[in-house]
Design brief:
Number of domains of chain A: 2
CATH class of the largest domain in chain A: Mainly Alpha
Distance between the termini of chain A: 48 Å
Low-confidence stretches of chain B: 71-76
Radius of gyration of chain B: 25 Å
Helix content of chain B: 10-25%
Helix content of chain A: over 70%
Order of helices and strands of chain A: HHHHHHHHHH
Number of helices of chain B: 10
CATH architecture of the largest domain in chain A: Orthogonal Bundle
Strand content of chain B: 25-35%
Largest sheet of chain B: 7 strands, antiparallel
Number of strands of chain B: 25
Structural class of chain A: mainly alpha
Strand content of chain A: under 5%
CATH superfamily of the largest domain in chain A: RNA polymerase sigma factor, region 2, helix turn helix motif
Strand order of the largest sheet of chain B: 7-8-9-16-15-12-11
Shape of chain B: globular
Shape of chain A: globular
Number of strands of chain A: 0
Radius of gyration of chain A: 18 Å
Number of helices of chain A: 10
Number of domains of chain B: 2
Oligomer: heterodimer
Mean pLDDT of chain B: 81
Chain lengths: 190, 445
């Protein structure tokens, strides 16, 4: 898979087509079809909060709109391009708030649902929050791979093409990352 | 004990996660840039931006602009020249000037180093590239012959940018990257010259009477906007200038903010905050003799201490080029932690262009000069006309040419990411070839 051109991604993506993004109507349709994917991707990468992820999502679309004339490819390739814009924005936002994030991370070690009563943790919504919180403790690549696999529902070969890594690496990373999350899952006396 | 979920359960929790934006997000996106409302708004901003750019070009580059801005009819305290007119005829398009030929043969280059003031801590010489910012200020003070002031320490995230001056005016630039603001602080003895944004005469009703401490001062918000046929005063432009006097000295602080559609806060609130900052700076000035501990802007650092890497400089340049300017965090603060060193070229007293080296730490994996040259996010990018891999000494580089003819060389060496960009006066005929740019790049040490 390494060395394979990235544009192959568009042949594997369910959104693949030949719609350009240049007109407002086309871009609007593209937004309608992809905004949930981008939102979930950024939520998974950053761990929230919700408002910040919404801001990042909106900004990524705005940047994509401004840069649309330089984009070449179909709508499937456009989603990958859009996600890379979003990822860069997330990184920039992280760097801007680095000091605050460090503090938040320190707090996160105390606050996350790890200390919650078991009854609450058992609730589905809180399990999701806990999982997303644990997700943030993973290194960047495994975190991104899990987000693409489970929050966006991508197949291993799509992830491999998007990240330009071998498919077996993706599978192995998913396995190891899930195991890591499982081990970090809090245990508590009933 | 609660048993750990197995992998299948984790996958299930993941897959069932209901992550959706709130109503707030959807309300915001209803007015996004590609919607009819967004397109209308963006066009308005683009027109205003273009008008502002034309105004600045007009004011800075044309004698007609300067003379137009200097038409004076009345004044209050007299710190600003005022006029009752808010609309003027646009000046004629300047005539093209003759072109010149660059002499590209590289000559050994030694940066010109200003003799230092008699200050032990600054060493025997002061340079824009190696001396602390405080030493650069002390040196300027010695050259102009009177005591100068600087911004005092405050809670504002200030960064010193540059100082320059002569006997009549000293100019210090600061930036606030957090708020995308630039501040120009001018001071001198005698008559007030034009400010950093030299609009000369301003509409009389744009002048507000304020106080800096207990001293009467004047403040103007706005700037001229140049259209095709007329020049119009725009009170909504994000320019503010404050002027006042203290005994024989005059002071002027100008503030300018980059703001864009989508910035949080109203234009009015942003301007009010900027106004308050300028007044705060004015009330918190300190003499250089007060020492660096009382000054804002990180003046105790050298450029390399500020940046954290060694600035590479050319050992050879074409004839008649001189070190002219060192600036930081360019591109509207988008390249934080970088420096741009410009070498200017003038021919028969005419500004003809410059060679600009922008440098950043190689360790910054997110810094990508090629991307910023192409500029995919701030403006609809165009495909490059030329994009070649080239050899710069023993390093691989990238030579890029945009459809408008602007060129850049991007490479990495000795722990530094670099971009070389020539810039030419619009009427200047000389151009560097690819081979000449590579030769320039190879002279960096």
């Amino acid at each position: 898979m390494n060395g394979q051109p990235k544009h192959i991604f568009r042949f594997m993506n369910p959104l693949a087509g030949s719609t350009p993004l240049s007109s407002p109507a086309d871009f609007s349709a593209f937004y309608e079809r992809t905004h949930l994917s981008l939102f979930r991707y950024l939520y998974g990468l950053t761990g929230g909060p919700q408002e910040d992820v919404e801001d990042l999502t909106a900004e990524a679309f705005t940047r994509a709109w401004r840069a649309r004339r330089g984009f070449q490819g179909d709508e499937g390739a456009a989603l990958g391009w859009l996600m890379k814009i979003g990822r860069r924005l997330a990184i920039d936002a992280y760097r801007r708030r680095n000091a605050r994030t460090v503090m938040d991370d320190a707090l996160a070690d105390e606050v996350p649902a790890i200390g919650l009563p078991l009854e609450e943790v058992a609730m589905a919504g809180e399990q999701q929050q806990l999982l997303l919180s644990l997700l943030q403790r993973l290194p960047d690549e495994p975190r991104e791979i899990l987000v693409l696999r489970y929050l966006l529902g991508w197949h291993v070969n799509q992830i491999a093409t998007f990240l330009d890594i071998p498919e077996n690496n993706v599978s192995a990373t998913i396995h190891r990352a899930l195991e890591c999350l499982r081990r970090q899952w809090p245990q508590q006396e009933k | 004990m609660q048993t750990m979920p197995d992998v299948n359960q984790l996958e299930s929790i993941f897959s069932n996660a209901q992550l959706v934006p709130t109503e707030r997000f959807y309300r915001r996106m209803k007015n996004a840039a590609w919607t009819p409302a967004g397109i209308t708004r963006r066009r308005a901003y683009q027109m205003a931006g273009a008008a502002l750019a034309l105004l600045l070009a007009f004011i800075f580059l044309t004698p007609q602009g300067r003379s137009l801005a200097q038409s004076v009819t009345q004044s209050f305290l007299g710190y600003f020249k005022t006029t009752d007119q808010k609309i003027f005829p646009a000046p004629p398009t300047p005539k093209a000037v003759p072109t010149y030929i660059i002499q590209p043969a590289l000559q050994p280059f030694q940066p010109r180093i200003t003799p230092a003031a008699d200050i032990v801590l600054c060493g025997p010489a002061v340079s824009l590239l190696t001396s602390t910012f405080l030493c650069q200020m002390i040196n300027t003070q010695a050259e102009v012959g009177y005591e100068i002031k600087a911004f005092g320490r405050s809670d504002q995230p200030l960064q010193f940018e540059s100082i320059g001056g002569n006997a009549s005016v000293v100019t210090i630039w600061y930036v606030n990257n957090q708020d995308s603001e630039s501040y120009c602080f001018r001071q001198g003895i005698g008559d007030l010259p034009s400010g950093c944004f030299p609009y000369g005469a301003v509409p009389a009703d744009s002048v507000q009477q304020v106080k800096v401490g207990n001293r009467p001062a004047e403040l103007v918000v706005g700037a001229y906007s140049t259209g095709r046929t007329v020049v119009t005063w725009s009170p909504y432009s994000p320019f503010i200038e404050l002027r006042w006097r203290e005994e024989a000295h005059w002071y002027s602080i100008s503030g300018f903010r980059f703001y864009w559609p989508g910035d949080s806060g109203s234009v009015k609130a942003i301007r009010a905050a900027l106004e308050e900052k300028l007044l705060g700076f004015g009330e918190n000035l300190v003499l250089l003799s007060a020492g660096s501990a009382k000054m804002g802007g990180g003046v105790n650092q050298t450029p390399e201490e500020r940046l954290g890497f060694h600035i590479l400089t050319p050992v050879a340049l074409p004839q008649n080029f001189e070190l002219g300017d060192v600036s930081y965090d360019n591109w509207g603060s988008k390249l934080k932690g970088t420096v741009s060193v410009s070498y200017y070229f003038s021919d028969k007293g005419q500004d003809a262009g410059s060679i600009n080296f922008t440098e950043g730490p190689a360790a910054d994996t997110y810094l990508d000069f090629a991307t910023y040259f192409i500029d995919p996010s701030l403006w609809p990018p165009e495909p490059l006309a030329i994009d070649l891999t080239v050899q710069i000494g023993k390093f691989n580089g990238r030579y890029m040419v945009k459809p408008d003819g602007s060129t850049a060389l991007v490479w990495e060496q000795d722990g530094v990411k670099l971009m070389l960009q020539p810039s030419y006066a619009s009427s200047y005929g000389g151009r560097f070839t690819k081979a000449e740019l590579i030769a320039l790049a190879e002279s960096l040490k």
